[in-house]
């Protein structure tokens, strides 16, 4: 059996190829892939050949947010043929010191699909057919579309970011950056009953989606910086910030707008960024990092399946696998796109 796939060789060099597919072994399933989203890290691989020290050093299939339908189940697998599942790309080893101490997110031998962090690279899900351990497959509700199911992974990232905050209910929240993760962060803050969710970005299209996801107010900081300045008086207005842009100006404005002893959860990732340590110290701020997810993946699937969080407003484009390069180009235009997904007709 053969599968079509998209393989990245170097910056801007994405090729549609064909490769053999093995039969599923014990505990595995063969999936006919349905939808797969282009993530910010995928975009960095395509546009820049990597991000920070993580570089594409050998050909790699990108993609780590996807859904598919069970076509064939291996021995010992309960999933029925025809079942739509969301695929968890995270594969902690389960035996290292961090897995043993309840921190599988920090697994020393983590295998994360579609990642160039390790060598050999972990191959991802931009392919028509995929064999994967059944334990990584989460069944979704019959009413859930493949496009919605494929958003389980980015929603998991936001649910884990929320867990790094000291409670959200009743809090005044600022979300800086309204890309796919920022927009989903708005939905999560709203779901957890924040009293106010203000969102900043540079693009009106992104802010319109933030409104659709539940923002109380949106501010285009290129056009209306004074509106954000209102929140920076009196040592700040917000109890909690989810910083999703990783842009130095946004980080500076977030620190100015958060109240003393408030919390900033740094969701966005970049290289070295200068920060005003004097303000962090003077306000006695709590700065929390966040990455990936673990048990949150199942929670995300459940929230999407029950319609508790509607991910549809962030899905802006769907293109077939053969047009993967065009899909990446569209995903790189923030004035046009939010979540761009590949499909596998």
The portion of residues forming beta strands comes to 25-35%
CATH topology-level name of the largest domain:
Quinone Oxidoreductase, Chain A, domain 1
Instruction: Identify low-pLDDT runs.
Output: none
**Number of discrete domains:** 2
What's the main sheet like? 7 strands, mixed
Q: What would the average pLDDT be, to the nearest integer? A: 96
Distance between the termini: 17 Å
Radius of gyration: 20 Å
- The best one-word shape is globular
The tally of beta strands, per DSSP, is: 19
Per DSSP, the total helix count is 11
CATH superfamily of the largest domain: Medium-chain alcohol dehydrogenases, catalytic domain
The succession of helices and strands, N to C, reads EEEHEEEEEHEEEHHEHEHEHEHEHEHEHE
What is the CATH C level class of the largest domain, in words?
A: Alpha Beta
Helices and strands in order:
Blueprint: E1 2-10, E2 13-20, E3 28-37, H1 40-48, E4 50-51, E5 54-55, E6 66-73, E7 84-87, E8 90-91, H2 97-100, E9 111-112, E10 129-133, E11 137-139, H3 146-149, H4 152-163, E12 172-176, H5 180-191, E13 196-201, H6 204-212, E14 217-220, H7 225-229, E15 238-243, H8 248-257, E16 258-266, H9 277-282, E17 286-289, H10 296-306, E18 315-320, H11 324-331, E19 339-343
Parallel strand pairs: 12-13, 12-15, 13-14, 15-16, 16-17, 18-19
Antiparallel strand pairs: 1-2, 3-6, 3-10, 3-19, 4-5, 6-7, 7-11, 8-9
Helix pairs in contact: 4-5, 4-10, 5-6
Features:
single chain, 345 residues, alpha/beta, Quinone Oxidoreductase, Chain A, domain 1, Rossmann fold, 2 domains, seven-stranded mixed β-sheet, six-stranded parallel β-sheet, 11 helices, 19 strands
């Amino acid at each position: 059996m053969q599968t079509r796939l998209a393989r990245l060789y170097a910056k801007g060099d994405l090729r549609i190829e064909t490769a053999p597919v093995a039969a599923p072994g014990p505990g595995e399933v063969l999936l006919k892939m349905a939808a797969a989203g282009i993530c910010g890290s995928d975009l960095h691989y395509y546009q820049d050949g990597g991000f920070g020290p993580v570089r594409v050093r050998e050909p790699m299939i990108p993609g780590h947010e996807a859904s598919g339908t069970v076509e064939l189940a291996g021995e010992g697998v309960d999933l029925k043929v025809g079942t739509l599942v969301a695929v968890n790309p995270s594969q902690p080893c389960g035996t290292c010191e961090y897995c043993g101490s309840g921190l599988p997110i920090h697994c020393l031998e983590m295998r994360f699909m579609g990642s160039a962090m390790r060598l050999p690279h972990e191959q991802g899900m931009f392919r028509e057919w995929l064999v994967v351990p059944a334990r990584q497959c989460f069944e979704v509700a019959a009413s859930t579309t493949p496009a919605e199911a494929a958003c389980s992974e980015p929603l998991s990232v936001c649910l884990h970011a929320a867990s790094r905050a000291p409670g959200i209910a009743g809090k005044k929240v600022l979300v800086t950056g309204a890309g796919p993760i920022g927009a989903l962060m708005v939905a999560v803050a709203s779901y957890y009953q924040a009293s106010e969710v203000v969102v900043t970005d540079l693009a009106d299209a992104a802010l319109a989606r933030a409104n659709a996801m539940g923002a109380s107010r949106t501010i285009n900081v290129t056009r209306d910086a004074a509106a954000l300045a209102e929140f920076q008086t009196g040592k700040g207005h917000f109890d909690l910030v989810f910083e999703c842009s990783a842009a130095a100006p946004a980080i500076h404005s977030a620190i100015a707008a958060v109240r003393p002893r408030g919390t900033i959860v740094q969701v966005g990732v970049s290289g070295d960024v200068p920060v005003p340590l004097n303000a962090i110290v003077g306000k006695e701020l709590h700065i929390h990092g966040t990455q990936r997810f673990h048990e949150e993946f199942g929670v995300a699937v459940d929230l999407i399946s029950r319609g508790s969080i509607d991910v549809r407003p962030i899905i802006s484009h769907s293109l077939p696998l053969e047009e993967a390069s065009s899909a990446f180009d569209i995903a790189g235009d923030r004035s046009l796109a939010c979540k761009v997904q590949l499909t596998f007709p």
